[in-house]
Amino acid sequence: MDNIDTSSIRNVAFISHGGAGKTSLIETILFNAGAIKRIGNVEAGNTVMDFDSVEIDRKISINTKACAVQWNNYLLNILDTPGYGNFLHETQAALSVVGGAVVIASAISGIKAETERVWDFSERYDLSKLIFVNKMDRERADFFRTLGNIEKKFKVNPLPIFLPIGKEESFKGIIDLVKMKAYIYPDEPTAAFSIIEIPEEYKEIANKYRNKMVEAVSETDDRLIEKYLEDEELSEDEIRGGLREGTISKRFIPVICGSAVKNIGSKLMLEAITMYLPSPYEREFKEAENTKTNENVIIKPDSSFSAFVFKTFIDPFSGKISLFRVYSGILTNESEVLNTSRNEIERINQLYIVQGNKFIKTDKVVAGQIAMVNKLKHTMTFDTLCEKKNPVKFDPISLQDTVITFSIVPKSKEDEDKVSTGLHRLMEEDPSIKLSRDEQSSDQLISGMGQMHIETIVERLKKKFGVEVNLETPKIPYKETILKTASGQGKYKKQSGGRGQYGDVWIELQPSERGSGIEFVDKIVGGAIPRQFIPAVEKGIMEACKEGVSGYPVVDIKAILYDGTFHSVDSSEMAFKIAASMAYKSVAMDAKPVVLEPIMNIDIYVPEDAVGNVIGDLNSKRGRIENVEPHKHGQHIKGKIPMSEILKYAPELRSMTGGRGIFSIGFDHYDELPSHLAEKIMDGHKDKV
After folding, report:
1. Which domains does the chain have, with CATH numbers?
2. For the packed helices 451-465 and 416-429, what is the interaxial angle rounded to 10 degrees?
């Protein structure tokens, strides 16, 4: 892959919901381009793109994979992206570095929720698109129903440039509306097909859609519209030029049909990518910050070297692997670059072109290429690399907040360090993983994009680092406070034959404002308690507040020490500490103790037809709706809800909305837990004590 010209590069991500056939379509494209000798199968676990052991076991894509392939003097950088909801952060990162997308729509199920999500990502990055209607050979497949589904869901103009011949089991070929020829395919999935005249029974519909295509194409150029209005025939080159202009400018989206597993239409998609999607010179300029001047600049391919790291892998043999997209300039082996995200110098020892799990050495990469380098010391996902003399930095990608959290517990005590090391290595691969420590329970918490996301992390921990863990529902960080003022005594007296123990304190507990913590006030006068024992009293109260009377930490109180007595011989720091603890536990019971629960802000985006169910469910979970307002694909619901009610909300929302709902949460405040629930917690603590 030497002497690559940027104008001949096409960077494209394949996107859809899971199971639509992205990986299978890419496999046949690679076969048709001569990059592989045989077509692999997802079920058999032998495709070029799904080489991770967890992906092979689950038969789904969970990571973005890259594959560079040359065909007809073009270099295609193809990114195979996940389609399941738990892994769409990978898809978002992939779409940020390409100029075009191939959207795979199932001729059976049409457009699913995940496809809508990734479509929105592609719109965010203003990408030109092609659509491949897949699975035309399957039962219940319907090309024209799928076209209507696309138009309705995405509010776009899908423009068929190929039509199917037959459907379901009888699907055997494709009509090319540009050439006005029919392609008939053999039963075996070879790259070959025979070219014939359009069968008589398809001529009427072919002419209908040909006229629609020509009309759309003519509107891309004044000269073409003039010819069209004068009933002059547009040449094949003029039609292709108009298709390219209309695709890049997003006037319309060309639609191709076929069957990936039967290799029908795959080669036509390969041609369409090269002909109709943009080169890096046409639609992929990127804005960056000049870190010297703090000014925003536009990065063009002929600027000095800059690149964006969009994916990291941890390989047991090669170490840390960084996949990056070159936005400008040229990068060569044995060069030094600046990581402006970390302000560190990195040395580039060996560059590679990626073909799935195959790495091909190269001496240099140019603007527009997607490439790989390993063993960078400081570089992480979403970092910028650039020439030292011209420092620029691209904005990192902002991922959706995590939606589910588990407590992660090693099965073996000896594996605690290995688990921590493994999780931090996996975080280098997947920046959507969040680790934290529960201050109250000291549990290690792991947060992710969904149940399946967390489960795959556990699988990878086992396979890559040889450690096994259990996932447990995290403990709710309840707290305790009081509602009224109370006072009382704590007296500790012990005689054991020798020197005894004596401490006597009187305290008053007062409720304080939310968020004020614990305040200790010393009001001892006249030496009722010697000064050297006051710190022990404070310590005793603070220790008693760690568990309160409910088993949870006490907050938002004022503890006033106002009286006490001592013994000149038997009093000690320990005695006063114990007496203070006894005083707190006694007085707290009279101060109307209550349990506080964490209340979360929740933002939910749901389709119109699910709003009622979602609001009803939130109300049943003690949620409080604050606002409902229109959103692009439905309604945006804002409210507050107790943390305890939404620990497993992600799968529940998915079920209520058919996978189309998304949400984010964030801590807001603590509020009083209803008494009937608080009683259960307090009774449970008494049983343990």
Report:
1. 6-283 (3.40.50.300), 287-393 (2.40.30.10), 404-472 (3.30.70.870), 479-591 (3.30.230.10), 596-677 (3.30.70.240)
2. 120
